Amino acid sequence: MKKPFLFFLFALLALLFSGCPSQQSYLAKHSPAFRQGYRDGCENAEAMVADSFVKKRNDTPRYRNDPEYRRGWDEGYSRCYADAEMAQYMQRPGAMR
User: Rounded to the nearest 10 degrees, how much is the dihedral formed by the CA atoms of 28, 29, 34, 39?
Assistant: First the structure.
């Protein structure tokens, strides 16, 4: 019961993001603070998916004081976490491909 639901959820996310512009062109439209936050959040998300002992972390003073960095970090973390989870799920034996 859980596998089909997860597959459906990840497939839906993939469809939603498939119409998005490339990451580079998307980030080019934002401020340097947003871009750095996005990269930092993305790196943290990928590390967390790869190793469950990694804790969610960010540049706390900057995250707290710079709204553009915070917005970029949150967005990068969310998008990359979903992508990394999907990639990891698809590598499991018996995963639908």
Answer: -30
